[in-house]
Amino acid sequence: MMKRYSRRLAASVLVLSVLFTSGCGQLSKEQRQARQQNLSSQELRPSQRQLSEEKYGRTTAVGEGSTIRMQSGSEQATIPFRTVNGVDYVVASEFATIAGFRFKWDEASSTFKFGDNDAAFQLKPGSLQAQKEDSSVQLAEPPILHNSQVLIPVSAFAFLLSDEVSYQLQGKNMILQASGNAVLGPIDGPDEVNTGSELDFEDDPNDPNKGERQAAPTLGQVWLSADGWEDIHAVPALKNIDLNGLITQAKRYIGVKYDFGADPYPQSGKFDCSTFTQYLFNKQGISLSRTARAQAKQGVTVSRKSLRKGDLMFFYVPGRFKTNKVVGHVGIYMGDQRMIHASPEPKDGVQITSINKAYWKHTYLKATRLAD
């Protein structure tokens, strides 16, 4: 009797154990599926990332149901449209990734920001008003938020990005054309010996903030540099600006972290390239625009052969599908071929960098001197 009861009890325990295990297994599977769906949604949200060089030349899947196709040699990249309610769109994060822009989704302002080393472009889903540099641009159709992704209407590219990338519209695809630009040397490569090349940087011997002041500088001849920008020799120095004090102040922020699209430093405690220069010059009573591209339009253009402390230096950021004629980075010249700037590389944050390297010589676009 006891043996039969024990066998029944054991069988009951076994059945309950199987049912319990099966139920837990089913619940665990549902949890895993829910978790996977949640992670997929998070992955589809815009986030700050860049396409690594190792992905060039092969098919790269980005997002759900969409594939960026790069042909052999990366001469072209094909981005398929997303059609919603009869309107053709491009996934914002896909475009930014393949074009080589940094980007992020600003949750607080519900804004998609992208650009080189600062947020030159800002799009708000549902709004016809977009920001390019520091100006407002009216779009024909608004970007939208669809399935946790920001979609840019194809019609917006003519207003926003026609001077940034070369592209064609074929059927239901956007075809990006490679720029063919090449940069000689890594960003943290070795210093070069100046040989008198037109690419070398030189200090202005008349800089009043470096040694004894010599004869007063005068406006000089205009010439076309190797990188296509018009330079002016020996323009007057900044007036009523403590440039040595500005450089000293800038050094106090060495090590402050870089953050793409950073809010003003007092609120964020971080900088991107243009908020750093804007913050420092504002302290000296000079109002600078928010983005590097807009800042490049302020002041007087000076030659790379006649640089002074406090000059703003502007560079393009290399990208396989981007032009090399658009400003993407800004720093402050310190003298002796050194620049202080906020950058994600070669270190992360505010840093002093030698510009006497192939990378900086070839990506340099212009320098400006600000005056009252």
Total strand segments: 22
Question: What is the CA-atom radius of gyration, in angstroms?
Answer: 27 Å
Helix proportion range: 10-25%
Q: Average the pLDDT over all residues and give the rounded result.
A: 77
CATH overall fold name of the largest domain: endopeptidase fold (from Nostoc punctiforme)
According to CATH, what is the class of the largest domain? Answer: Alpha Beta
Strand content: 25-35%
Tally of individual domains: 2
Biggest β-sheet: count, sense, barrel? 6 strands, antiparallel
Q: How many DSSP helices?
A: 8
First-to-last CA distance: 106 Å
CATH homologous superfamily assignment of the largest domain: endopeptidase domain like (from Nostoc punctiforme)
How do the strands of the widest beta sheet line up side by side?
17-22-18-19-20-21
Q: Any low-confidence stretches, pLDDT <50, length ≥5?
A: 1-73, 211-237
Task: Give the overall form.
Answer: globular
Kindly name the structural category: alpha+beta
The CATH architecture of the largest domain can be given as: Alpha-Beta Complex
Strand and helix order: HEEEEEHEEEEEEEHEEEEHHHHEEEEEHE
Structure description:
- This protein is of the alpha+beta class and 372 residues long.
- It folds into two domains: 53-177, Copper amine oxidase-like, N-terminal domain (Copper Amine Oxidase, Chain A, domain 1); 222-369, endopeptidase domain like (from Nostoc punctiforme) (endopeptidase fold (from Nostoc punctiforme), Alpha-Beta Complex), CATH 3.90.1720.10.
- The protein has helices at residues 2-44, 92-99, 157-160, 243-251, 265-268, 273-283, 292-295, 358-363, and strands spanning 60-61, 67-70, 76-80, 82-84, 87-91, 102-106, 111-115, 121-123, 129-132, 135-138, 144-146, 149-153, 166-170, 173-177, 222-224, 230-232, 300-302, 312-315, 329-335, 338-343, 349-354, 364-369.
- It is globular and about 65 Å long.
- The termini are far apart.
